[in-house]
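Action item from last meeting closed. Structure (432 res):
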């Protein structure tokens, strides 16, 4: 049966489910690394330095995955624009599963010395390449297979993979967190990574049954496939790439601010128990998962750009109360503070995938959105815990420099969203 033989509703449903499930698994893998960076890796892989320096080294290794993401976006974007979206999604999921399981099997510094952090960084690099190719393909598989009026909703389900992965990662760490410290640091932290092998098998079974996206099939039918998608994107759409990078800034950074930096900050400087903070992160992840579909429905009524811009402005207003509430070190108030950021920020994030999928022509769309999103992840998203920790340490524990950095990212994002929306409107008006 060809793509065109499958009923539209069935094709859309399969593509959306496959994109959501696979993306949730990949984000689970990425988030458990972030959680382990905040709780485990400084002690087990960088023990020869001070705790603060160990945390910085752990976050630097965390950033390596983001530095690798543009490479994944370029390589798999090229493959996806030349050969199709489906093949790349199977390969990226398999790569992520192998790398994550490998981390769960790694000997620590105490066992093999310097080789341990080097292997950790190498496997983190593979994770980055995999997720760099995953996001763009999942977005396009879901949105390009849906009717035009439903593409925003389909893109939202890809974005649901982030809170779903975060929720699952937090739940698994919550369970192993009940172990005594000796058991947790000995073998308990490995369980979330080893579980990835089971999840990847489930994801692969679902993905291999999906048909190629409608838009790519049409592009191939019309002989519109280009030989060098990256060259074409940089030749004709470099301005859109830069705007898309800026429009993604807080969407990528916010998750690692919450799940990595705030987790480290609260469990060290603020002395909040590790298990308590895992409960807090679980609560806000569930909130995000529940709120994003509601935000997508609101966007259908008020317009995608209005919702995104309004949510981002609301997020700016929420920054100061959010930090004040976190600084109380009271779990209920920390939850309330993070919830402020989640409700405002995730409304924008829910619509980001569908919004960016409209930016580039179908024949270079995979490469265009992947390069933009993954370069943003590399330069801005992955550096967020490291930059935030540096600002916190340099300010003798005062978080207001971190808050200023967060607001700067929000301002960059809202400006680029508005300019990009204007360009899209002008292109539609001209019929291009």
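Sequence:
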């Amino acid at each position: 049966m060809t793509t065109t033989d499958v009923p539209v509703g069935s094709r859309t449903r399969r593509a959306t489910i496959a994109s959501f499930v696979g993306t949730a698994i990949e984000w689970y893998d990425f988030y458990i690394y972030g959680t382990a960076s905040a709780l485990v890796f400084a002690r087990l892989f960088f023990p020869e330095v001070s705790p603060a320096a160990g945390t910085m080294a752990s976050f630097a290794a965390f950033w390596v995955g983001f530095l690798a993401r543009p490479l994944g976006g370029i390589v798999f974007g090229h493959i996806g624009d030349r050969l199709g979206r489906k093949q790349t999604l199977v390969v990226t999921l398999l790569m992520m599963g192998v790398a994550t399981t490998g981390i769960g099997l790694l000997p620590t510094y105490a066992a093999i010395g310097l080789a341990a952090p080097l292997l950790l960084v190498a496997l983190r690099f593979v994770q980055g390449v995999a997720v760099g190719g995953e996001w763009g393909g999942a977005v396009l598989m879901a949105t390009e297979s849906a009717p035009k009026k439903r593409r925003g909703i389909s893109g939202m389900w890809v974005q649901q993979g982030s809170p779903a992965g975060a929720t699952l990662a937090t739940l698994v760490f919550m369970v192993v967190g009940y172990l005594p410290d000796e058991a947790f640091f000995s073998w308990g932290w490995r369980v979330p990574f080893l579980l990835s092998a089971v999840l990847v098998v489930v994801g692969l079974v679902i993905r291999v049954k999906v048909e190629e996206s409608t838009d790519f099939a049409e592009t191939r039918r019309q002989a519109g496939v280009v030989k060098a998608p990256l060259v074409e994107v940089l030749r004709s759409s470099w301005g859109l790439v830069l705007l898309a990078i800026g429009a993604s800034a807080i969407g990528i950074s916010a998750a690692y601010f919450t799940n990595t930096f705030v987790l480290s900050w609260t469990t060290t400087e603020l002395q909040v128990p590790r298990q308590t903070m895992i409960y807090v992160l679980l609560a806000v992840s569930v909130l995000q998962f529940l709120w994003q579909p509601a935000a997508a429905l609101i966007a259908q009524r008020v317009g995608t750009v209005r919702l995104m811009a309004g949510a981002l402005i609301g997020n700016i207003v929420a920054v100061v109360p959010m930090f004040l509430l976190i600084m109380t070190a009271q779990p209920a108030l920390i939850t309330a503070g993070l919830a402020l950021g989640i409700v405002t920020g995730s409304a924008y994030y829910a619509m980001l995938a569908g919004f960016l999928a409209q930016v580039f022509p179908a024949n270079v769309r995979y490469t265009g959105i992947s390069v933009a999103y993954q370069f943003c992840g590399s330069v801005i998203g992955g550096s967020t815990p490291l930059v935030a920790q540096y600002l916190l340490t340099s300010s003798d524990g005062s978080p207001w420099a971190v808050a200023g950095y967060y607001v700067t990212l929000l301002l960059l994002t809202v400006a680029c969203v508005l300019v990009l929306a204007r360009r899209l409107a002008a292109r539609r008006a001209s019929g291009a």
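Note appended to the action item: The chain has one domain: 3-430.
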